[in-house]
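Lab notebook, bench 4. Still working through the backlog of constructs that have no structural model yet. Next entry is a single chain of 391 residues. Request: give me the structure tokens for it.
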Amino acid sequence: MSARDGLDRLRLSMLVEPGDARVAELLRTHTAGRVVEACVAGTPLRGGSSLGGGLPDPWLTRARSGVADDAADLLAAARERGLRWVCPGGAEWPTALDDLDLGHPVNGSRGAPLGVWVRGARLDALVARAVAVVGARDATTYGQEVAGDLGADLAEAGTCVVSGAAFGIDAAAHRGAMSMRGRTVAVLACGVDVDYPRAHAGMLALVAGAGAVVSEQLPGQGPTKARFLSRNRLIAALSAGTVVVEAARRSGALNTLGWAASIGRVTMGVPGPVTSRASVGVHQALRDGQAVVVTNGREVLEAISPFGTVDATPAAAPDTALDTLPAAARLVLEAVPTGDGADVGALARHLGVDADDVAVVLDDLLARGWVAVLDGRWSLARRADLSPPVR
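Model written out:
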């Protein structure tokens, strides 16, 4: 990518809103510079079928204001502040973002970004192996603990944690990753130099130091509802998979999950208490088959990794003394009652076996100390299922 191409993409980004599907249509047949020229001149530009040759009035109005003329100055000022404009074709560009040109529209948005602003470490290296952890702003204590544990587990495994720096689940995931000195990326719906929410100014500074803060929005721009929805597609695209921890039925986190599904990423959800309103959206996604259940970082890694390379199967429970007994001994021992006990005949009838066979097994269990006998009645002396194995 040439410096001119990068500047043209920046100029176009000053005229349009990120995620506008019409931009993606035009860029299939025109360069960013050609689109900007047409906006400035107010001339028709044949492109996607939805445009029919005309250009949207808001683009033309911004172009006539001369705002795009300041692109070079904006770029220079941003560089002095440690902000980088990263574009497709550039060395730092994460090619995973190109997949957004292939997915179907979600809530009217579509397309890879014209470029992204970055504050922090090199973006392509950060997200070479990354997972998004997103969820409710109004999160429960349970949700925040789970998100923090996921962030820590993933970071400890060398996986970058991507989220949106919002209150609740997002912040917990970022902090969990940083608690393990891991990498994390915050994708914002405002400029990378804007601390939003303001209460997270300190956290965003730490994120930039442990990874990067990223946005399509120009430096200094504030967030809007539409910009939150369009930034969700970047969170999904930068990650190999998206995990939702707590989400109401209508939630921005579910929008991110929709983007992940649209571009072929792994979609995952953490179940919450069945009585929790905060998890209703997650549970619905799980019921509809839109996400797979995950409960810890190991399961997330198994879901995003090549088949067979990560096994999240829980370790087998440790053996007990009961496990080491012969099958006949286990059968009889589990039938022996506590308290007053039972005689051999009663045990034989209960088990449906010969009384002489039961008597032989009971004598062996008595010798091992598992049962006791008093006046011909056998009772449990020790719990073999709670005792360590006898080697």
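Notes after review: DSSP finds 17 helices and eleven strands in the chain. The chain has a mean pLDDT of 92. Flag for follow-up if needed.
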